[in-house]
Amino acid sequence: MAAPVPLTEYQQSYHWRNKNCGPWAKEWVTKTLPTVKVEGQGNTATISSVTSVEGDCDLGQRKGKLLTIYDLQVAAKWAGSDGTTEFSGTLNIPELSHEAIDGLSDYVFDITIDQSSKDADSFRAWLKATLPGVLTPLLNGFRDDLLQAHGLFETPLASGAATPAAFKQGYSPAPPAEAHAKIAAQKKKDDAGEKKGLRTVAVEVSATLHASAADLWSLLTDRARVPMWSRASADIKPEVGAKYTLFNGNVSGAVISVDPPRKIVQSWQTKSPGWPSDHHGIMTITLDQGSDSTKVTFALDGVPADKESDILRALDAFYIQGLKQMGLGTIL
Questions:
Q1: What is the CA 173 to chain-centroid distance, rounded?
Q2: 224 and 179, same domain (yes or no)
Q3: Contact 94/73 with Cβ under 8 angstroms?
Q4: CA 260 to chain centre
Q5: Which of 39, 58, 121, 132 is most buried, judged by most C-beta within 10 A?
């Protein structure tokens, strides 16, 4: 087999640049949350300190567009009073994630109180009802502050230096939440018991993108880069026998074979309603590089016949559109 034709210098400018913003993210949380104060019904409460910030925060750049990928776990202490009694406790935010801003999940605020009394229970109930309304818009500003602080990469783009404001304008959100909601809202079917005589079909979606096969291979198989297009957590390793999960665990399976950067074959299963829980299809992802682009094909064999149209839509919405929205473009 002939070696792939090297991409031109212009084409190489489409490759990802990545910046680790973890230290900045932890500093932002540590400094910002203690500014929070809530009042009402004779009660007051403030976040006194941030005790822990764990997780990752990255900024990816390609073709003048940025993708923010962050998933942080935050622990803090709060203090308050009802005018006569002092209270204290903890606040845990298990997922400060880009998915909340993209409409794919909600923030969760776990609030505990150190005291034990009827007044303490009443104060905690008030705090649980009041604090989220103040914290939510504050946390929603995390992305804008991240782009403002790190939106200008050290190395200018091929077309010239860009500004953080320009990056904000060109920011690509997650694959459409509407498509996610449609799939999740499908009427549930009973898949209990052994499925006998299951009729299956093969489906396929593809796109020709402005990227090298090596670049796409990395985006599809590197655990740190998969969230840049899937906009969800992933655990994957391109090794035969390795198990993987995508889209927050909604897709899972194991790697059957690898031929980097041309082809990877995986067993494939989704939690989508109607897909049998004991059934796996076979996903074959091929990357065919040309002189100035690469055709990526997702071919899934073993799809239950009554799920054909649903799976086709899902593959396009979450795989193809996810890659397109990173600014890879499509050759028509």
A1: 10
A2: yes
A3: yes
A4: 24
A5: 58
Q: What is the mean pLDDT of residues 270-283?
A: 89
Domain around 300: 174-328
**Rg for the chain (alpha carbons), in Å?**
23
Give me the residue label for tokens 């799809």: 303
Residue 28 shares a structural domain with residue 85: yes
**Nearest-angstrom CA–CA distance, 65 and 165:** 11
Contact (Cβ atoms closer than 8 angstroms) between residue 10 and residue 44: no
Summarize pLDDT for 148-181 with one digit per residue, the tens: 887 654 443 333 333 343 333 344 443 434 433 4
The pairing of beta strand 65-81 with beta strand 251-259:
unpaired
CATH code of residue 204: 3.30.530.20
Same domain? For 188 and 89 the reply is: no
- The closest alpha carbon to 316, from 183, 148, 212, 121, belongs to 183
Sheet holding 294-304, edge to edge: 200-209, 294-304, 281-289, 263-270, 251-259, 243-246
pTM of the model: 0.50
Strand partners, 73: 54
